[in-house]
């Protein structure tokens, strides 16, 4: 409340100052073995790890986009 809300509003109203671009990303793909992370918007084609070739695990982004 208070200061935090004020900061959030200031950031939301000035798109150039936002810490993260709103590029439509809903999460990222992870390879647990290699600790490799690829954002869904950066992925072209199959979600496979570039290091080991295993299928990667999708993890939704959370926290910052909460609307509550
Ligand atoms: Zn891997």
Question: What's the alpha carbon Rg, rounded to whole Å?
Answer: 16 Å
- How does the helix and strand content classify structurally? alpha+beta
Bound compounds: zinc ion
Helix count from the secondary structure assignment = 1
Largest sheet: 3 strands, antiparallel
Ends apart, CA distance between termini: 12 Å
Shape: elongated
How many E-type strands?
3
* Overall pLDDT score: 82
Percent of residues in beta strands?
A: 15-25%
Q: Taking strands numbered 1, 2, ... along the chain, how are they ordered across the largest sheet?
A: 2-1-3
N-to-C SSE string, H for helix and E for strand: HEEE
The portion of residues assigned to helices is 10-25%
pLDDT below 50 for ≥5 consecutive residues: which ranges? none
Report on this structure.
This protein has 68 residues and is an alpha+beta fold. The protein has a domain of 44 residues. It is 16% helix and 19% strand. The protein has one helix and three strands; from the N terminus they run αβββ. It is elongated. Bound molecules: zinc ion (ZN). The site of zinc ion has 8 residues, from loops. The site of zinc ion (ZN) has 8 residues, from loops.
């Amino acid at each position: 409340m208070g200061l935090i809300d004020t900061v959030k509003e200031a950031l939301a109203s000035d798109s150039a100052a936002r810490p993260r671009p709103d590029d439509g990303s809903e999460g990222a793909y992870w390879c647990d073995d290699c600790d490799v992370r690829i954002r869904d918007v950066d992925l072209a084609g199959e979600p496979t790890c570039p290091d080991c070739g295993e299928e990667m695990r999708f993890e939704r982004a959370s926290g910052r986009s909460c609307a509550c």
